[in-house]
Amino acid sequence: MNFKELDNYLLSKQGATFDYPFDEEVRVYRIADKMFALMVDEENLSINLKCDPIYAFELRSLYQSIKAGYHMNKKHWNTVSLGGDVDDELLKELIDHSYELVYGKLSKRERVLLG
Distance of CA 101 to CAs 36, 94, 104, 111, Å? Predict the structure, then answer.
C-alpha cells in the first residue's frame, strides 16, 4: 500500500478524521479526538498503530517490519514499516484492531455522536 491508499482506508473508518498536531508532516488519525494511527508521507513509509499489549509483543516477535511504537508508548503502540514482511491484508487487520481498541474506549455519548 502507498500513502494515498492507506489514507483512504484510514479515513473510511466511521468518524475518522486527521490533523497535524505535532508538526506539518505527522498526520494523526483520530476518532472523537483519540488517536488510532499516525504516519508521514515519505519514501520509507511506516505507520504507528495502537495495539493490545500482548498482541503487540507477539507481532513484534513474528514480523521484522513491526517494532515498538516510534515516539509512542512502547507497550500500546507498534510501528509497522511498509514494504517488508507485513502484507496489505495484515496491515488492514492491524488498522482495524487499532480503530476498534480506540472505539471501544469511547463513551456511550461519543459513540452516539459518531452514528
Answer: 8, 11, 5, 13
Question: What class has domain 3-106?
Answer: alpha beta
For 8-63, what is each residue's pLDDT tens digit?
Answer: 999 999 999 999 999 999 999 999 999 999 999 888 899 999 999 999 999 999 99
**Amino acid making up residue 26:** V
Neighbour order of strands in the sheet with 77-81 = 16-19, 27-31, 34-39, 46-50, 77-81, 66-68
